[in-house]
Amino acid sequence: MKNGAICGEYVHQGQHCIFHKEKQIAKDFEEFQKAIIDKLTRDNSDERIKEIDLSGYRFNNFSFKGLVFNKSIIFNKSVFKQKAEFDLCEFNCEEVNFSNTMFMGDISFGDTKFFCAKIVFDRVQFRGPTVDFSGAEFNCGRNGFIYFTNINFQGSATFVGAKFTCKQLRFWNSVFSGPLVDFTETIFDAERIDFNETSFSCESKETGKVYFRSEFHGDTLNFSSTKFHNYNVNFYDSKFFSKTTTNFTSTEFNGCTVLFDNSVFNSELTWFFKSQFSNCQKISFDNTSITGESIIFNESIFESEELSFRMTRFLSLATTSFRKVWFKSRRVLFHGAEFQSPETYFSESVVENELDFIGEIQPVSKKVFYKNVEFTPLKLKVIS
Length: 384
What we know:
Layout: E1 11-13, E2 16-17, H1 26-45, E3 51-53, E4 58-59, E5 62-63, E6 68-69, E7 72-74, E8 79-80, E9 84-85, E10 90-97, E11 102-103, E12 107-108, E13 113-122, E14 125-126, E15 130-132, E16 137-139, E17 145-149, E18 152-153, E19 156-158, E20 163-170, E21 175-176, E22 180-182, E23 187-194, E24 199-201, E25 208-211, E26 215-222, E27 227-229, E28 231-234, E29 239-240, E30 245-247, E31 252-254, E32 257-259, E33 264-265, E34 269-271, E35 276-284, E36 289-290, E37 294-296, E38 301-308, E39 313-314, E40 319-321, E41 326-327, E42 331-333, E43 338-339, E44 343-345, E45 350-351, E46 354-356, E47 367-369, E48 374-375
Parallel strand pairs: 3-7, 4-8, 5-9, 6-10, 7-10, 8-11, 9-12, 10-13, 11-14, 12-15, 13-16, 13-17, 14-18, 15-19, 16-20, 17-20, 18-21, 19-22, 20-23, 21-24, 22-25, 23-26, 24-27, 25-28, 26-29, 26-30, 27-31, 28-32, 29-33, 30-34, 31-35, 32-35, 33-36, 34-37, 35-38, 36-39, 37-40, 38-41, 38-42, 39-43, ...
Antiparallel strand pairs: 1-2
């Protein structure tokens, strides 16, 4: 404790130092800027200090742009009241921790490099109009962890061109509610990638946009129980290369246009088990290639103006299954689709409108099971 301050810094007025003072006037800003730079320089170079602790600090319009941190840095319960910039920063340390931090203005981590064993953004409140991680590199090695968990993104969130490398990457149980969520050209490379139980629920009057035109590498990708509401969801040209499982079990798409066109699924198991596509304008898997051991759409619900699998290639080594699927879409199109799995199932499915297989299907699965399929009305033509 210095001069009576609980945090160890000098008391500014009353009981708080300049870093924790709730209300700052204009002359405080200059003092704060100088004091924080002095502290960062001192702590970063002092070998006796193992981590830089900025817990609970109150930042106004402040820029960390271009700074290099060689020690762990903690922002637990800090508040950024206005714009915050971390562009071009480098974190070369054991841990970066923003747990319980509140960002009230725009926040930018453009081209920031995180070379840390553990990166934590847990229970963060992003309340500003934009959150920008474009070009950021998160590299924890093959044993590290990256947590974007229990977060509230109230504005647009951009991760364009970002790269994640670690053992476990978690985006679960977070809420995206801004007009834009953009993971275009993002590369995810982790043993386990989790977006499960995350909610994409646009609160703007117009439909929002979610872009996942991304590459997914590693062992397991999990979007199970993820909810997309009032967004145009675009996985166009994505590469699903997770070795064991790509999992969309119980994923909900409500009030969306959903595009998986031109994507490649190359996992042992591709699961859309019990997925629900409700009140959608269009659902499209056109020109998509799905390989691996099994492809499962069992017990899913498709409700849209159009559901399209045009030129889709179902190339699993064992099974392609649409068992107990409820096709509620006005038009269901499999034009030119290829079913090369040894067994393909449509058993016990319900087709409320028209299911159209018109187009060449070469070669067709050796066994195609339609037992107990209800077609109302029937428009089915298979050319083989």
